[in-house]
Amino acid sequence: MAGRRDELTDTAADAAIEIACRVLRLPTIRDRHGEVAAAAARQQAGYKAFLTELLSMECDDRETRRKARLVREAAFPRPKRIEDFDFTANPDVPAALIGTLSRCAWVAAGQPLVLVGDSGTGKSHLLIGLGTAAAEHGYRVRYVTAAALVNELVEASDDRTLSKVIGRYGRIDLLCLDELGYIELDRRGAELLFQVFTEREEKASIAVASNAAFSEWTSAFTDPRLCAAIVDRLTFDAHIITTGAGSYRLRTTAARRQAGGT
Hints:
Layout: H1 2-24, H2 27-42, H3 47-73, H4 95-101, H5 105-108, E1 113-117, H6 123-136, E2 141-145, H7 146-158, H8 162-170, E3 174-180, H9 187-200, E4 205-210, H10 224-235, E5 239-244, H11 248-261
Parallel strand pairs: 1-4, 1-5, 2-3, 3-4
C-alpha cells in the first residue's frame, strides 16, 4: 500500500508540475524536471541546488528560443553565418573587420554599413550573416530587398498606411537592405525609400548591399539630388566594405569542376 501511495503521490506531483509549468510557460522545467530530480537524488543535492539547476536550464533554453525567434522574424531568404564565409576565396573582404562587426557594437551605435561589390563576391552572405549575428545578440532585424521594400511602400502609400509602415521600419534595430542598385527606381519609389532612411537616420542601423559603386547609383536613382541625399544618409559615420570584382562563387564552382575532372 505504501508503495502504491508513493506512486500516486509522484503521479499527482508530476501532474501538478505539468499544469503549473504550462500556466507559467516553463517548457524546459516541464520536460526535464524528472531527470534533474533523479540526478539530484543520486548526487544527494539539496533543494536549492536542484532548483538552481532547473531554473538555469529554463533560462538558457529561453535565451536560445529568443535568438531563434529573432532570426526567424528577420525573414532572411536563406541561412548564412559569418563563420561559414570563406575569406580565403575572397581576400578582398577584411576578415578582422567583419569579425569586429559581428560583435554588433555598430548596431548599438546606430551606424550604417554598406557592402559594395560585383555579383558573387559575398555581399548577401555577409549581409545575412551580420544580420543573423545581430539577431542573436538580441536586436530586432529585418531583411528585405530594395525592390520588395519599394513595392511595399508604394502599396502602403496607395492604401494610406504609409506612415504606419515607415514607423514599423523605423522601430527595427537593424534593417538589412539587399540588392540596392539592381533595378532603376522612379522618383516616387526613390522618395519613399528616402523616407525610410530619414526615419532611421542616426537612430537605428541600416546595412545595404549593392553591386554598384556610389558613383553609379544615379542609374538606380534617376534624380541626382535625391541620389546624393540617399548616399549622404547611408555613408555618414558608416562602415564601407568593398567586396571586390570577379565572382568567387564562379571561381569556386570552376575549381570544383576541375577537381572533379582530374
